[in-house]
Amino acid sequence: MNAELFNALDVLEKEHGIPKEYMLAKIEEALANACKKEIGPTAIIRVHLDPVKCDMKVYQQRKVVPDGEVVDPVSEISYSDAKALSRRHKLGGVVETELKTKNFRRFSAQTGSQMIIQAIRTAERERQTKEYEDKREEIITAVVDKVDMITGNLILDTGTGYATLLKSEQIPGESHDVGDRIKVFISEVKTGETRGPIVTLSRTHPNFVKRLFELEIPEVQDGTVEIKGVAREAGSRTKIAVASKDENVDAVGSCIGRNGMRIQAVLDELSGERIDVIKYSENIEEYIAEALSPAKVISVVMDGERSCRVTVSPDQLSLAIGKAGENAKLVARLTGCKIDIKS
Predict the structure, then answer these.
(1) pTM, to two decimals
(2) Which of 130, 134, 187, 238 is the most buried (most CB within 10 A)?
(3) Apex CA 244: angle with CA 221 and CA 210, to 5°?
(4) 251 Cβ contact list (under 8 Å, min separation 6)
(5) How confident is the model at residue 107, as a pLDDT?
(6) Are strands 55-65 and 76-78 parallel, antiparallel or unpaired?
(7) What pLDDT does 163 receive?
(8) Stretch 238-255: mean pLDDT
């Protein structure tokens, strides 16, 4: 059984990333507690585990006290009794006796087993939480493991564990089948008390589009082109503002590519969602005028720090406002300004 135990620790380390040293410490703790269940709570227990020899030994330690002064036989032994065991024992020293764990009652063995199992679960939760934390605010590729036909939620195999992509976090109108590989954005990670980390996955988060640009556009990857802001109505339209750190690089053109080849990879992932790539400007009036694209703006006049009046020609009014006011709302979100559009 000892060999099987140490082999199991090797498997846990290789397949689940749980360090053998961590599990050895937990096993020592479990065995010590099991011994105390048998002998008494004041017992002093030393556990020796040898992974090389696949050997496990448990010892009870008792302090040598003068004859007639033994108060707790579980943790103390008289000088005479200690001398009877070995002449080398001295007052104040420690007598160590090996315990035969096979003689433990089943209850104690179960207690130890439960502690070990709990330690494995705890280590697994901690490992998963750390892996997800390392990927927070990033995009990962996951495989659809299950589709809940009632709620529309997806159970995804993320490679770290299983997590749920809620229907509300899916792009409206898209559908997925078991076995599909999809990209998801990890927006939040919380430590779960019993069932592992609580991970919030999303395909509707504005930063999902931002990360897609970072994946697909080389100039965004290397920092030449910077994404200054994103406003999004998932499944319908996104406006993304970009700026170039190199005057010889066109930020908007770099993101779109020749004949739209670069941005097409992002569009394919978003199930037909429209994307307006906007040139960012430190001048707020210019920025708002650019953001209202594809509408052509006559003028932008600031009424205050975060409020403005925009004038467009009559034939551009509906385009500037957008269907159900969508274009104007996205511009307001992107620029942080309240916008009043007039013809």
Answers:
(1) 0.71
(2) 238
(3) 45
(4) 219, 225, 226, 242, 243, 244, 279, 280
(5) 47
(6) parallel
(7) 92
(8) 95
- Whether 227 shows a pLDDT value over 60: the answer reads yes
Q: Which residue has the tokens 């585990």?
A: 49
Q: In terms of C-beta distances under 8 Å and separation of at least 24 residues, what long-range contacts does 119-124 make, across chains too? A: 119/22, 119/23, 119/26, 119/27, 119/29, 119/30, 120/12, 120/18, 120/23, 123/16, 123/18, 123/19, 123/22, 123/23, 123/26, 124/16, 124/18, 124/196
Residue 112 pLDDT greater than 60, yes or no:
no
- Enumerate the H helices of 162-260 as residue ranges: 206-216, 218-221, 251-256
DSSP secondary structure letters along 176-192: --TT-EEEEEEEEEE--
Higher pLDDT, 104 or 140: 140
Q: Which domains does the chain have, with CATH numbers?
A: 2-129 (3.30.1480.10), 135-202 (2.40.50.140), 207-280 (3.30.300.20), 287-343 (3.30.300.20)
Which amino acid is residue 133, in one-letter code? E
